[in-house]
Design goal:
By secondary structure, the chain is α/β, with parallel strands linked by helices. It is built from 12 helices and 7 strands. Helix 2 links the parallel strand 2 and strand 3.
Length: 309
């Protein structure tokens, strides 16, 4: 039997009580699993929130050995916190990590079907589609979706599965999934850690999981619910971190993934040298196209100069 664990990074400020409400809904979705053979790995990214601390203490008291908890000495970001969670999962003998962000909601059958898939198929990554919801847990209409969410949901109609999907990801698709709908073998997650950036850290690992040899599978049976608050604009990542910084992270993650994917694939003989240049050209144009869609004119000029010189 495969041992599965939810890996949940947490960063909830005292002045954002609604985020604690979302987190409680996240935890309730784990309690509501049809299969209770799970572990929960919570990595608090130095929240400094006494109400959150009290709630986590109650989770630990009620669930005992099913909960592994770590509080970071400083704020590292979600990606680094997931890496810490993955290391804790590995120490605990976990076979599969199920990523789940602290404001999203797991499907009730996620553990059940994830265990079944990894036990009966030769796969390394399992992903599903997702349902965008607002702060009241109501499903959002499609016109509320930003470009990247629309793109992912459209891609899911023709889901990429099997070996070497990284080629289409870097040269055509860009996005494959959101973190809270993705599960991966722990040994692969250890091999490809999340980069130390504040956004787009998942884009890099989804591409690299495939480039180092990971096999992808898709299911439409266990959609997670993805939180997109509509009345909290001042507390969103794009507002706090900045649109330009987010798009720079996106471009840097994407460009790094292009080079690292190609090197990884070359090292295992998955592509030939004469395939590299055409693939890189397509991939670089894809980066620039995404910056143009985002309206990042200055970044578009900057990365055009870097990539097409």
């Amino acid at each position: 039997m495969k041992k599965c664990a939810f890996v949940i990074p947490i960063f909830i400020k005292t002045e954002c009580p609604e985020r604690l409400t979302f987190f409680k809904q996240t935890i309730d979705s784990i309690y509501g699993q049809t299969c209770d053979d799970w572990l929960m790995i919570l990595v608090d990214d130095n929240s400094q929130n006494s109400e959150l601390d009290a709630y986590v203490d109650s989770i630990i008291r009620e669930n005992g050995e099913k909960v592994i908890y770590k509080k970071n000495p400083r704020n590292y970001g979600a990606g680094e916190s997931r890496n810490i969670g993955i290391a804790l999962a590995d120490e605990a003998g976990v076979d599969v990590v199920m990523f789940l962000d602290s404001d999203d909601v797991a499907h009730p059958r996620r553990v059940e079907l994830t265990k079944d898939s990894f036990e009966n198929k030769d796969i390394d990554v399992l992903y599903s589609y997702f349902i965008p919801i607002d702060e009241c847990t109501k499903e959002l209409p499609a016109e509320k979706f930003p470009h990247n969410i629309q793109f992912i949901l459209e891609n899911d109609k023709h889901a990429l599965v099997g070996d070497d999907i990284w080629k289409k990801l870097i040269s055509e698709k860009v996005y494959v999934n959101l973190t809270s709908s993705t599960s991966v073998r722990t040994d692969l997650a250890k091999t490809v850690p999340f980069p130390s950036i504040r956004s787009s850290e998942d884009l890099y690992v989804w591409m690299m999981y495939s480039a180092v040899g990971g096999k992808y599978d898709y299911t439409d049976e266990i959609p997670s619910k993805y939180r997109m608050p509509q009345k909290m604009p001042g507390r969103s990542l794009s507002t706090c971190y900045g649109e330009v910084n987010m798009n720079r992270d996106f471009a840097d993650a994407y460009v790094s993934a292009i080079g690292d994917c190609i090197n990884a694939a070359l090292s295992r003989g998955a592509i030939q040298e004469d395939e590299v240049q055409p693939l890189m050209v397509k991939a670089y144009h894809n980066v620039l196209n995404e910056l143009e869609i985002a309206g990042m004119d200055e970044l578009l000029v900057e990365y055009s100069d870097k990539l097409l010189q």
